[in-house]
Amino acid sequence: MAAQAVLRSSARARLLSGAFCAQRGGPALWQHHQNQRAFSNGKILVEMDEATGVAVMKMKSPPVNSLNLDFLTEFSISLEKLEIDRSCRGLILTSAVSKIFSAGLDITEMSGKSNEHYAAFWRAVQEMWLKLYGSNMVTIAAINGSSPAGGCLMALCCDYRIMADNPKFAIGLNETQLGIVAPFWFKDTMINTIGNRATELSLQLGQMYPAPEALKFGLVDKLVPEDKVQSAAAAAMSQWLSVPDHARQLTKSMMRKPAIDRLVKQREADINNFVSFISKDSIQKSLQIYMDRLKQKK
Ligand SMILES: CCCCCCCCC/C=C/C(=O)SCCNC(=O)CCNC(=O)[C@H](O)C(C)(C)COP(=O)(O)OP(=O)(O)OC[C@H]1O[C@@H](n2cnc3c(N)ncnc32)[C@H](O)[C@@H]1OP(=O)(O)O
Fold this sequence. Notes:
Layout: H1 2-17, H2 19-22, E1 31-33, E2 36-40, E3 44-49, E4 54-59, H3 69-83, E5 90-95, E6 99-100, H4 115-133, E7 138-143, E8 145-148, H5 150-157, E9 160-164, E10 170-172, H6 184-194, H7 196-205, E11 209-210, H8 211-217, E12 222-224, H9 229-241, H10 245-265, H11 267-278, H12 281-296
Parallel strand pairs: 4-5, 5-7, 6-8, 7-9, 8-10, 9-12
Antiparallel strand pairs: 1-2, 2-3, 3-4, 10-11
Helix pairs in contact: 1-4, 3-4, 4-5, 4-11, 6-7, 6-10
The chain binds ligand 8Z2.
Pathway: Lipid metabolism; fatty acid beta-oxidation
Subunit structure: Homotrimer.
EC number: 5.3.3.8
């Protein structure tokens, strides 16, 4: 308990002081250029168009934008920065890594680490979800590559999903394929998007859907040619921004608040649950086998 409190307060201190960014060459300040503003924390680049109030957040952590503790911390700091910026009304989330949106949680963060590390990691995953799913901004995922598990979750947190029309790109919550389990708030996010039956099928089978199937399943809202993903996201954004913010925000909150409250109420229990699950020998073995397979496929 004491260790958790220390981790929690040190994570918050890092978030508030910007010390985390300073480690990478100073706090991420806005750079101005004509009517564009931009900042980068290292793994994330944010470009904001002041004329439209739309920010584009590009994940740029090669080779696969896996979500490790550093990435997640940077992500939450960046999102917070946009959230409190009243001139920013919309966020397009996309990838700067070719062919990959995000490979999901970094499996190496869940293997062979201390329980304190697992707890800090899981708190950061929760934080990312709480901030993105609960964002007041219009959020659009421009899915320009594969997006398994945590990557799919990030996309599902957005208000609208546009994916590159390439059957080689797949999206889904594939946790069971790794021998692990999507937690209840991953499940809730998917149910809120595609419904109970489709979620049960997807989760039990750990199904990854190639883009055309993802569209049929309602996992994404629109497919466009690969080179049109960003422009289609911008076009959808201007439609979403034509709705008065206060009405749209209250409606979004009405739809999402029950799921958010559920995690907020049991955050510590969820962390403890994750730590005891992931530290089991049998689960560690499953993850090791999965990682070995990933490397062997080359
Ligand atoms: C009760 C409930 C309690 C809670 C219970 C617990 C809940 C946990 C919830 C978990 C959520 C998750 O997100 S779990 C994560 C699930 N993610 C995945 O399954 C993705 C696996 N990756 C892939 O499918 C592919 O890599 C893909 C992303 C499509 C890219 O394919 P490519 O051919 O382009 O690239 P690859 O050669 O495979 O990968 C490049 C390198 O990146 C590594 N890599 C790929 N994905 C990685 C990843 N997620 N984490 C770390 N490393 C990864 C590979 O090993 C390679 O390393 P080198 O060989 O060294 O170069």
